[in-house]
C-alpha cells in the first residue's frame, strides 16, 4: 500500500491517510459492521471499551484470511454522539499502532443502532497478497 498525501490540501485531522493506493492482484476482505458483543453476549460500557471489542472482532475476522491490521486500507466507524469520538479514536489508534501505512478513515455520527447500549460500530476493508 502507498499512502497518498497530495500537496494543496490540509493534513489529516487524525491518524489516517487521505488516500491509499493498492497494487493490482490483491485479495480483499470486507467486514460487516462490528458491534461490541462478546462471545458470551456481553456488551461492555463506554465507547473505548466497545471500540476495542469491535477491533478485536475485526482482528479475528482478518486472521481467518491470514490478514491483520497492517492490511487494513479503510476504516468506517459510526458513533451515536460526538462524546464517543475520543474513546473510539483511542481504540482505533491502538489497533493501528504498529502499521506502516495508515488506512483511510471515515467517522460518522448516527442516531443509534439496533440496541440502545451500542454506541460504536466499526467496519473495515483490507487487502493482501
Q: Quick summary of this structure?
A:
The protein has 129 residues and is of the alpha+beta class.
Q: How does this structure look, described?
A:
This protein is of the alpha+beta class and 129 residues long. The chain has a single domain, classed as 60s Ribosomal Protein L30, Chain: A (2-Layer Sandwich). The chain has 2 helices and 6 strands, in the order E-E-E-H-E-H-E-E. The strands form 2 sheets. Strands 3-6-4-5 form a 4-stranded mixed β-sheet, with helices on one face. A two-stranded antiparallel ribbon has the order 1-2. The longest helix is centred in the middle third of the chain and has 18 residues, at 47-64.
Structural class: alpha+beta
Evaluate the radius of gyration.
Answer: 15 Å
* Number of separate helices: 2
Q: What would you give as the CATH superfamily?
A: RutC-like
Q: How far apart are the first and last residues' alpha carbons, in Å? A: 11 Å
Reading off the top of the CATH hierarchy, the class is best stated as Alpha Beta
Q: Strand arrangement, largest sheet?
A: 3-6-4-5
Please summarize the sheet with the most strands: 4 strands, mixed
Count of domains:
1
In the CATH hierarchy, the architecture is 2-Layer Sandwich
Task: Kindly report the CATH topology.
Answer: 60s Ribosomal Protein L30, Chain: A
Give the DSSP E fraction (strand runs of 2 or more residues): 25-35%
Run of helices and strands: EEEHEHEE
Quaternary: single chain
Name the poorly predicted regions.
none
Quantity of strands, as a count: 6
Helix content: 10-25%
Protein name: RidA family protein
InterPro entries: RutC-like_sf, YjgF/YER057c/UK114
Organism: Roseobacter ponti
Pfam families: Ribonuc_L-PSP
Amino acid at each position: 500500500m502507498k499512502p497518498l498525501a497530495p500537496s494543496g490540501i490540509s493534513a489529516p485531522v487524525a491518524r489516517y491517510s487521505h488516500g491509499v493506493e493498492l497494487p493490482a492482484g490483491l485479495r480483499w476482505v470486507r467486514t460487516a459492521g462490528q458491534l461490541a458483543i462478546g462471545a458470551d453476549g456481553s456488551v461492555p460500557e463506554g465507547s473505548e471499551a466497545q471500540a476495542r471489542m469491535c477491533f478485536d472482532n475485526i482482528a479475528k475476522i482478518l486472521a481467518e484470511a491470514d490478514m491483520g491490521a497492517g492490511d487494513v486500507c479503510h476504516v468506517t466507524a459510526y458513533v451515536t454522539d460526538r462524546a464517543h469520538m475520543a474513546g473510539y479514536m483511542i481504540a482505533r489508534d491502538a489497533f493501528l499502532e504498529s502499521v506502516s501505512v495508515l488506512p483511510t478513515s471515515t467517522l460518522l455520527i448516527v442516531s443509534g443502532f439496533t440496541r440502545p447500549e451500542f454506541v460504536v460500530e466499526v467496519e473495515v476493508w483490507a487487502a493482501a497478497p
